[in-house]
Amino acid sequence: MDIFAGIMIPFIGTAAGAGCVFFLRGNLNPFIQKMLLGFASGVMVAASVWSLLIPAMDMSQGMEKLAFIPAAVGFLLGIVFLLAMDKLIPHLHLGSDKPEGRASNWKKSTMLVLAVTLHNIPEGMAVGVVFAGMLSGNGGITAAGAMALSLGIAIQNFPEGAIISLPLKSEGMSRQKAFLYGAASGIVEPIGAGVTILLASFIEPVLPYLLAFAAGAMIYVVVEELIPESAEGDHSNIGTIGFAVGFVIMMILDVALG
């Protein structure tokens, strides 16, 4: 039951954020949106370091001075994977009229949801890999540490849900439909985490690589999209403050609960 709750918490965070469409009028204030994007970036960077990369190196201590290899290789593979997804899957970022990825005739709303879904793929993988590590008893990953990662990702998913559902409503979509689109962008997280956990016994030998892979994928999202979006236009320092707050909160969660 704890594992089921752990893999569902990030999705609940996305759905709760999408639910803002029932309570707020118009789009999020740009000032608040920058703060939330920065906050999400800080959470993801801290989670990548404390929940993924450090455990990956701890698990590889038997390699002595070469213990960095699984973390380095997995990290770079995660970057390459997200880079490929970014190039192959049609998607559209908020505030942009130019789709990215392969050319398609898909609706704007569909490509907006896909952009956030791409963010959520590595997050779902990260949760699944950490819980798989906990189940295997490998690397000292505790249930509390795994739950801390889920909670941290859920916190940063809240603004993502709002950032996708509110603009869809402003473009004429009904509140109910906008909520469903926003919530649907997060469904890949529990699915990806669940599949990873089911394969726990098979992935144990390469667990350090998979932890680092998830970290690399999340860092790609942060550097490629979240930080540039939070720094655009006026008041870019607000995104930086949000980053610092998110980083510290996730660091505290991981250290205190892990």
Summarize the structure.
The protein has 258 residues and is mainly alpha-helical. It has helices at 2-18, 30-59, 68-88, 108-136, 143-170, 175-184, 188-198, 200-203, 207-231, 236-257. It has one domain (41-257).
Q: How would you explain this protein's 3D organization?
A:
This protein has about 260 residues and is mainly alpha-helical. The chain has one domain. The chain contains ten helices and no strands. Helix 2 runs antiparallel to helix 9 (about 205-230). The longest helix is centred in the first third of the chain and has 30 residues, at about 30-60. The radius of gyration is 18 Å and the shape is globular. The two termini are about 20 Å apart.
Summarize the amount of helix as a percent range.
Answer: over 70%
Q: Output mean pLDDT.
A: 85
- CA radius of gyration is 18 Å
Order of SSEs, N→C?
HHHHHHHHHH
Features:
258 residues, mainly alpha
Helix-strand layout with pairing:
Blueprint: H1 2-18, H2 30-59, H3 68-88, H4 108-136, H5 143-170, H6 175-184, H7 188-198, H8 200-203, H9 207-231, H10 236-257
